[in-house]
Structure formats: structure tokens, C-alpha cells
Amino acid sequence: MSESKEPQASGTAGVMDPAHGSSGSEVGGGEPAAALPVARLDDPHLQEATRYPRRVEAIVALSFLIGIAGICAFGGAYVERAGTQAYAASLFVGLFFLGFGLTAWGKYLMPRGPFVEERHSLASSRSEQQAMAAALVERTGIVVRRRKFLGGLLVSGLGLFGIVAAFPLLRSLGPRPQGTLFKTNWKKGSLLVDLNGTPVHRTDMQVGGILTVFPKGKETTLTAQAVDQTVLIRVQSTTLVTMKARADWAPDGYVAYSKVCTHLGCPVGLYEQELELLVCPCHQSMFNVRDGAFPVFGPAPRPLPQLPIYFDTTGFLRARSGYDQPIGPGFWERSTIGNGKASAT
Amino acid sequence: MALIDSRPRTRREARRELGPYGRVQQAVNELDERIGIARGGRNLLDKIFPDHWSFMLGEIALYSFIVLVATGIFLTLYYVPSQAIVVYHGVYKPLDGMHMSQAYESTVNLSFAVRAGLLMRQMHHWAADVFIGSIVVHMARIFFTGAFRKPRELNWTIGILLLILAILNGFIGYSLPDDLISGTGIRIAYSILLSIPFVGSYLAFFLFGGAYPGHIVIERFYIIHVLIIPLIIIGLIGAHLTLLVRQKHTQFAGKGRTEHNVVGSPLFPQFAAKTTGFMLMVTGVLGFLGGYAQINPIWQFGPYEPTKISYAVQPDWYMGFLDGALRIMPSWEWTAWGHTIPWEVFLPAVVFPGLVFNLCLAWPMIERRFTDDYAMHNLLDRPRDRPKRTAAGAAVIGLLFTVFGASATDVLANYFHVPLNEVLWFFRVAVIVVPIIVGFVTWRVCIELQHVPGAVKRKRAMVVSRTPEGEYVAAPAPEHPGDEHRELEPEPVPVRIELEPETVGASATTAPTGESGVRRALR
Question: What is the DSSP letter of A191?
């Protein structure tokens, strides 16, 4: 009997003694613990949740067997390179049925309960709460009152560090925008070339044709393409004037607009030939090609900037100048008057 | 303590010294003496999880996240986050000879040349969509049942932060393949940053390392996607679950359920079995989707080129509300004093989501302000009992569904052969009308439901039969076999389980150590 006095063994003594019944017992380790709940095996809470345990057992077993087969099949499919669908089917069968069986086991074959747990307030007593606040306030108070000067120095030092540290963290991430957003690579005399660097001749395009062009020499890099992309369209009219003061911007019906949507910068890639509308597929802004690419539908706030072009002596298209305003979506520093009509200079 | 120091001489003695629980007892003791696990550990095993299906929604989110991490690790082994241009000569012949970024090339390669790579990629994508979807549904459950009330406001806040981070990481993640559609998405994100007053161009340039598209954005997105945001998400999930354990679950009112207890199944073994099984099922279903439901076939979109675009560009579902808001926004742009505020972008893409998420974050405070209810709440509301809250939530959901629908204006116009302009104006009207109608109808329905007698109780079916004389007789249906299995009064989780009394009695006399008197009955 001496074993029962040992800490570990004594913990079970109460259970052993029928006289204690379900009152629980003390655990070893010296401190008395709260009574731990004990139940008898025939307690209804401990019975299976289902009334048909044999049937459920069979279903769980079958489910596990299917799952095991699925896992084996997954391994086999992987070895045999059987393809995505085979991996997926076997993985699904394997994991789903193992999971299904385990869930059914937990739900129907384990003690049905329900069990209950008491909630205890997480809050400490009022005096504990006050003690915490007092510790914070009074100790800080002592420190600050006695060494205001030191505290000030420390705070300004750390504050300075915060500001100084933010500089490399943020500022080094990229250059300042400065004028970048206002500029494209289009200059006076830029030769219009397509993606392959081929210049556009007077005779190259049919009426209704559309081509994406870049200033020569800049057609290869993505960053340049992203801002320079210009859509060149040949319309029916050979004397197209899109706006006042743009009389000679569209020779022979060739008209060029920035391809960057003024809404969110998607390429304005669709051309509705009959209505002569440029359409942005992202948010369906539509720009009237004849009317200075003025937006006739959708959320775009401004016309696409127009590139003034001319034929040089050899019959190739060149830019008269760059764009007269920043291309693409709006931003804080942008200052051009919005509607474009008035700003055509 | 002298007894402990005296070492056992025989194996049997050693075993006896360990008590009835053998090696496990020894391991528990060793750990407990060092780090004190016994009481807290057992409390954790006894933690009660309410047996209501709606508590499973958060589990879907958690397990989707685990799948995301596992498949994501696989993907990082093959994905190359670089915008350097290469010429493709891989197994997918239609792209042969095309110029593309290494990011796109490696994504195509891991889809076609790596065994099970496509499955992993599509599982990852599906898991992301399911992750965010289940977070939203879980959040709706928390909202409509009032589970966010004191003391759980902090966990509500953490949950919303998780949702925002999940959406953000989802967007960044599907941008990584650098295909034509996601590249357009990145350009739109850049333009949205540009639209922010005062700092927009700086933010855009700092994120992209210069003007769009630059050379570094994919690398930056990569490290944000695989390290920075996942770390924050893991930390927040840890905090979410720690708070859940510390504050214990909420529960619906019912037999034996009060503000001061939780009724249900203990963590071990019932809940552990059910939830582990559920995790396997979620993973299996995501695997099925990954193999049979094609998602984001980037090889069909082609590599990103800044001058190209494809038709019917839609983002993943969780970005739909932003896209829809951008589409139906009128083209208002202010230009004054040399500055521009692009309201047509800033309002729908920055202010609108900001308002929605801030409304969610502030809701516990707002509700407290109106109800003056500062009490602790552990019992859940039925949505009908809080008509105003339910109506407000339904209205916001109605609004979000409407703007989500608006992200398909072009597709709807094509499909129904309706002019795009009419579809657009339909949504512009609907976005104002739908929330009002939904809110009002929900409020009325809640009030009506409150007056339905016995609506809470499940009623027995009545069987109506006709006698040969033509008389109709109604009688209660026979009890369904399942109904006899009535729920018992809840009891505390038993720590020890006794065998049948006679066995205990017998062993008490014959085996005083108790080795045979106690056994684990929980299977």
C-alpha cells in the first residue's frame, strides 16, 4: 500500500475508492486542487452520439479504406505522371474520405455530451486594475518629474531616429516623380515607328486601319512603351480637324492619340471603326476619334491627348512636337485644364 | 521528497511508480516540472466548442490558409520573380519564341513542366479565393449574431485587418505571373495610387521604383506576397485564436446555455477529430477544384506587354467591388490652382473601400453609441431580434453585391443584348436603391419573424389525411427516430472515467495501485 502515498499514485486513489464516488480527488504536488469532475462509464453523456454505432463504424471504416486507396492512387499517379486531373481526383478521394471518416467518428462515435465549461471573468479585481494604472502613472510621473531634461533629449533622439530611418525606408524605394509624369519621349521630328521599328509611310495604312506607334528608338523598352504608346488611325476624311487650332495635326486622315486611357491607364486597344470610337476594355470609356478623342461614354474624365503629326519629305510620318499635356490618368500635380478643348495650344 | 529520490529497483516497481498512466504521465510530469503545462494543458483539452454549424465558417478560412501556405511554399521553389525579358522555348508550343518576363516564363514552366505544378498553382489560387470568401461569410455570421460585442471587439478588429490583408495579398499574388491580365491590373493599381491627392505620385513612384512599369515591381510584390503580408497574417491569426481561447466561444441560447458557460464538445477528442477531418475535407475539395476547375490560365492570356489589352478583363472576385465602383463612377475630375483631383478614381477606388472597412471597424462603437449597451455578451443574438443591426448589415451587403455586379457591365450588356449605357445607368440607380430596399425589407422581415409564435422551436410535422368519407384529419406525425435522442443536460467534461461499479469495487481490493481500475473510455 505504500505506493499509494506517492504523489502520482495518490492522484488516482480517489477514483479507486468507491466511497468517493464522483466527488473527484486531490492531485499530488502539494497544493489542493479544485474537485475534478469524474463520470461513470455508463453515464449517458459518455455514450456514442449515434444509436447505431455498428453501422456508423462500418461507414467510417469504409470511408477510411476509400481514403487510403485514394492516397495510394495519388502516390501512384504522381510516380506515373498521370496528369493534373489524376492527381486531383486521387488527392480529393484520399483526403476527403479520410476527413469524412474522421469527422463521422468524432461526431457519431465519440461521447455525445453535451459538455459544459464555466466562464470565468478575465478581469482582475478593481484594486489590481488600479494597481496597474498606478504603477504606470506614478512611476512615469516620478521619472518625468525628476528628469524632464533627460526625457526630452531621449524623446527627441528617438523621434529624430524615426524620421531619419523613414528616409531610407521610403525615399530609397524610388526616385521622386519630379517631371516624369509630364514627359513622354515624343519630340519634334520623332519618326513614328511600330513595335518592330518600321516607320509608317503615307501609303502604309488603309482607311479604317489602326496601328500602335512609338517614337523611333524608344519602341523596345517596356517603360518607354508604357508612356509613349500612341494609336495611329486613318479615318475616311482627308481633311480631319479634330479641334480648333489643330488644323494641320491630322494629315491625309492620319490621326494619332495617346493610347493610355485617361481613366486608369489601360491601353485604349479597341477601335469601333464605323462609329470611329476608341474603346478602353477595362472600364468601357469611349473616345470620339473625330472630335479630339473627347470621352463620349464611361468614367474617363479627359480626352486622349492628340499627337500632332506630319509627313516628312520622304512621305514618312513624324511628330510635329510632343504631347501638349501629360498623358494618362490624373494626378495631384497635373495642372492642365481638364477638358482639352480649351487647352489645345 | 525522499520517496521520489529512492530509485525503483525493478521494472515493475518503476512502472508502478509512474502510476496508471505510464509513460504519458512521466512525460507530463517532466514537462510540467519545467514549464508548467498540466493545469493549463488540461483546460485547453477541455475547452468547449459549441456544436453549431455556423462556427465552421472560420475553420474553412483557417484551413484554406494552411493550404495556401503549403502550396505557396511549393510554388516559391519554381517561380522566378524577375521582369528580365527572355525568349520562351518551353513545352507549351503556342508561346514558343515569344518574348516574356522571367516571372511569366517560370509560371508557365511550373504549370507545364513541373510534376503536379499546375495542380499546386490552381489549388493555391482556389484556396485564396475560398480563403477570402470564407472570411467574408464568417464575418457576416459574427456581425448578424452580435458576436463582436463586448468583450470581443478586439477580435472583430483583428478579423477585419485579416480580411484587408487577405484581399491585398490576393491581388498582389495574382499579379505575380506577369501575364497580360494581371499586368493590366498592376497598371490600374499604379493609376489608383496616382489618384491620391498630395502624395499619390510619390507613393506610386516609391512602390514601383520609378515610372510604371519599371523593373522592380514584380520583385517587390513577390517579397510582400510571400513574406511580409503572410507574416502579419500568421501573427494576427495567432492573436485571433489566442483571444478566442482566452475569451471562450460565444453560443446561441438553448438548454443549459447561459452567459456564464459554454456548452458543446471538448477540444479533445471530439472537436479535434471533427475539425481535423474537416481540414482534410477542405484540402481535398480545394485539390479537386485545383485539378478540375481551371483558374487563371495565364498561357491563354499571353505575357504582359504595356501596349496590349484583352477584352472583358475582370479581376478576381474579391476585387470586383472596386472594379464595379470604378465603372459606375461618373467622370468627375477637379482641376484648380494648378492641381488635379481625379475623383473618378480616388472616390470609388480609395475613399469607398476606406469607408466600407472603417464602417466595419467602427461598428461595435457605433452600435454601443446607439444602444448604450456596455454589458458583456456571450450569448448570441438571433438576427431577427436585432432588426436594425440586421437591416444595416443587409443593406451594406446589398450595396457590395450591387457594385460587384457592376464590374460585369460589359459582359451583361453583351449577354442580354442591352445597350451598355442602360446597364451602366441601371447600376448607377441600383447602387442607391438596392441598399435602401434590402435594408427596409430585412427590417420588416425581422419584425414579422419576431411575431411568429414558436418560430424558434422546431415543430413536429402534421400529417393531413383524408378519410373515405372525405373528411380531412390532421394528426401529429410519428416521432422521427432521431427525435427520441433528446439532448441531455450539459455536464462538465469528466477528467476521469470510472469503469462499471463492480469492476471498480473488485479492483479496489485486488489492485490498490489502480492500474486496472481506470481506463480511457473516450475513444
Answer: B
